[in-house]
Amino acid sequence: MKAFWEERYAEEDYAYGKVPNAFFKEVLDRVAESPGRILMVAEGEGRNAVYAAQCGWKVEAFDQSEEAKRKAMQLAKANQVTLNYAVSTMDGLQLEKEIFDAIALIYAHFPKEKRQAYHRQLSALIKNGGRVILEAFEQEHIHKQKDNPEVGGPTNIDLLYTVEQLKVDFLDFDFIQLDVQEVNLAEGQYHRGVARVIRLHGIKKGE
Prior knowledge:
207 residues, alpha/beta, Rossmann fold, 7-stranded mixed β-sheet, 7 strands, 31% helix
């Protein structure tokens, strides 16, 4: 998969545009009074990380793609913000527990056999009272792809999620929002059309 993403992000245009994901923007705008330290997971070309930095968050991000980082840093420079961006996989991530006020997973799809472990690994990085923000394609999205391949998303159903899976993966969270929606995506070249997505906004429970 690394080669796939290197090729996609090597294109001159930003594959998913330069504008932040609508749900991510909505949540950040709602909690604008309390920016802190945020980790952007599988961040790609930086559209969401740059927006978080513009909102006053201290942004750390990672992706497995060198080209993704290059484009993200280019976008950050154009917007006069700072990102701490690492090239890494989930398995290569080395961070202390409970250091982030928020973690965002915007279309960060993990293999079925690793999904729960990765989500719990990320959850451990969040402080009590911190938040997780996630938007991902739901399993029934596979039918949207058949109607319109331009809508994007993994074509392997094992990489798509269900609400029930995420409830278990994020057991340590109270959910402000966790639902399935059909949304009209207009994110660059590869997310175009009506998609079936899960939107999750949760607060980590205290001990």
